[in-house]
Amino acid sequence: MSVMLSRAAENIYWMGRYLERASNLCRMLQVAEQLTVEIRGLAPETAVEFWSEFTNVYRGSPAVTGDVDEIRMAGLHNWLLGQGNTLSVATSMHNARENARAIREYLTREVFEQINECWLHLDAGVRGEASPDVLLGQVQQAVFGIGGTIGRTLIRDEAWVFLDLGVMLERVYRVLMLLRHRLPPLMATPNDIDIPVHHALLRCVLRSAGSLENYRRVHGAGLTPRQVWSFLFFDSQSPHSVAFGVSNLEGDLGEIERGGVLTDAARQVGRLSSQLRYESQDLLGRHDFAAVCQGLASDIERIHESLTRLYFTV
Amino acid sequence: MARSWKVAEKGYDEALASDDAARGLYRSVIETLSRFDEREILRREELQEVSLVNQGITFTVYGEEEGTERTFPFDFVPRIIGSDEWETLERGLIQRVTAINLFLEDVYGDQRCLRENIVPFDLVLSRSDFRRELIGTRPRHGVFTHIAGIDLLRGEQGEFLVLEDNCRCPSGVSYVLENRNLLSRVFPEIFANYGVRPVDTYPQMLLETLKFAAPRGRERPSVAVLTPGLNNSAYFEHSFLAREMGVPLVEGRDLIVENDQVSMRTTRGRQRVDVLYRRVDDAFLDPVVFNAGSLLGVPGLIHAWRAGNITIANAPGAGVADDKSIYPWMPDLIRFFLDEEPLLAQVHTYIGRKTEDAAYIRDNLSSLVVKLTDGAGGYGMLVGPTASASQIAEFATVFDANPDAYIAQPLVEFSSHPTWTGNGYAPRHVDMRPFVLFGETIRVLAGGLTRVALQEGSYVVNSSQGGGSKDTWVLAEELVR
């Protein structure tokens, strides 16, 4: 099929975004679960705070109060199964499945089946047939499995490019949001810092971005907030770094550029890519880290708007 | 035998001559299935269901919560048709579809059959599916029904009878292919002694048919499937056919007409469409010509079609041929257009618009099957012999208000087929919809959708009314190996 309908391109792009969102969120929930186990004896208030901050990283859900267990279960339920929560894993997978149904002719049977199966697991949870803490592991595996199946079975045509654009855009945006909200508190290092808890939280940032092991291969056991920032921003080989994502976006847009004309989206991505490549030292030297992340996240939002104008509303 | 098989008490039993005695073609399959104990059958049935659910092989049910998806229940006992019988059936289907097309070409053209009073003039012109706007239009090659589904049942002697013609957007072929796929995975053993003709050639046959119908001068025609969208009951099938043919699945909003040329909105700008396999009813195709409020259609589409710039399959206006009040005239139409005797018999039909027939229908509601002339899916239908007194009384009021809108047929005690009921095999009524493609030649898919009434004694096989389906085997050789 050489023709790519604008509506199909939009659906596959959003399918990529929703799948990536679900995958990110599953990973963050898993990290929060592990952190709760790790530090609830040492610093229960930190565990409570970590769960509460989900609202900042993924805006839009009601704040939850209570002790560690209450907030953990409420958070899990809200972010995994919450139907009113437009960003929950269940909502994201429901939307991804609706997008997949709309463009089933572009997908392999295996990809559609895996998306459908994952949604069925979640649907059982939404209907109260499975507990969220039990379901989380299953769903996480299923979501990761979808990514693998996509990589192994889909043809690398234009549909693939739009899917990858969705995945990468979402990934970069979520990593920036994660860094924007999780890292600044860790950069301020008061004298009475609790080193084990501090390190646990830094590891959480890396794990939330699926990058702890990759980070260790590059930096070894040394763990500082600036190194984490540098790695998640500039490492060109780590699949969850901002630089990696932007480089992929650049490649994707190169594939679909119209008749060699530089589009708005390509120009915006190119500018971002140059900034990450040539202004890394300036960026690393800045102290308003949250503003840097926010600025880049706004750039990503503008790229999304350009893509919509260029390709989805022909 | 490990399990008992009961022959149908009434009507023709397709598989059994008597209890536990299989007809020739069925011997091997019944022997194989009889070797499975109940636990094994249930295990495989569960596999079957999980497979359907996971693959999202569903249809959308109207009238319930928006977008409720259901699987179409599948019964694993296959229906088998021998090659000789199929050959006869195939000839009858080709004859019928040829006549249907000639009828359509005529009613939108010279109207000879109306002028010579083969079919009453006012009957045809008063049908809601007769499109006056299209008089004088002749599609490429004169073909109106590129894809037809002819509903058949077997009468009391096992003979095939035509129950109705589907000339607009006949659905169900995706289940024919998926049922074969499912059965061969879940019960591979039962295929061992049979040479079953494949059905997975259908997408290729369909694409060839559609490309052949393309407007003149289109060397490599671009084909698309037009769907009303995700919430349509047959959306799975629309998507399935587009995927299997490797063509885009479009909605009305993806298309635009400029200077009588139809284009798709793509990421690389607008691209011309040559053939549209539409799964949208006439009324919703083009708000400029038909239903002005339609959000599913494409403004200007009919003008583009009349200008010969796009092929719409099936052609607009084809629905008049499958109106249930035209059906009684089909044998006469076959004689008129082909000068041949009909090869397939059909069920005697009373027509509500005839005064004497309306009175007969009114007096005999309890023994007739009464249907809306433009109805489908089992909606608005009364099965008199199984209806309660209050249902009949209620229906009588509706009928009296507009008898012209109905036809009625005596209840044919149509054939039964062994079907797994959850705790054993029992006879259940079945019908069949073979699919006929009219391209360079007329071809019939060697198989068809066998629908089964899953409730004991029920005659309603529609998926929307609790029916299920079976795999239909057409054998390459008469005898099992």
Helix content of chain B: 25-40%
Write down the CATH class of the domain at 85-338 in chain B: Alpha Beta
Shape of chain B: globular
| Strand residue percentage of chain B | 15-25%
Mean pLDDT of chain B: 92
Distance between the termini of chain B: 21 Å
Low-pLDDT regions of chain B: none
Query: What is the β-strand count of chain A?
Result: 0
Order of helices and strands of chain A: HHHHHHHHHHHHHHH
Number of domains of chain A: 2
Major sheet of chain B: size, sense and barrel closure?
Answer: 5 strands, mixed
Work out the helix count of chain B: 12
Helix/strand-derived class of chain A?
mainly alpha
Poorly predicted tracts of residues of chain A: none
Sheet/helix structural class of chain B:
alpha+beta
Q: CA-to-CA gap between the ends of chain A? A: 19 Å
**Any idea what the radius of gyration of chain B is?**
23 Å
Which of globular, elongated, flat, extended, rod-shaped describes the shape of chain A? Answer: globular
| Spatial order of strands in the largest sheet of chain B | 5-25-24-21-20
**What is the assembly state of the chains in this entry?**
heterodimer
How would you explain this protein's 3D organization?
The complex is a heterodimer of chains A (314) and B (481). Chain A has 2 domains: 154 residues, no CATH class; 150 residues, no CATH class. In chain A, 75% of the residues lie in helices and 0% in strands. Chain A has 15 helices and no strands. In chain A, helix 1 runs parallel beside helix 8, helix 8 runs antiparallel to helix 9 and helix 8 packs antiparallel against helix 11. The two termini of chain A are 19 Å apart. Among the domains of chain B are: 254 residues, Rossmann fold (3-Layer(aba) Sandwich); 62 residues, 2-Layer Sandwich (Dna Ligase, domain 1), CATH 3.30.1490.270. In chain B, 28% of the residues lie in helices and 23% in strands. Chain B contains 12 helices and 25 strands. In chain B, a hairpin with a 2-residue loop joins strand 10 and strand 11. Chains A and B meet through helix 1, helix 5 and helix 6 of A and helix 2, helix 8, strand 9, strand 11 and strand 12 of B.
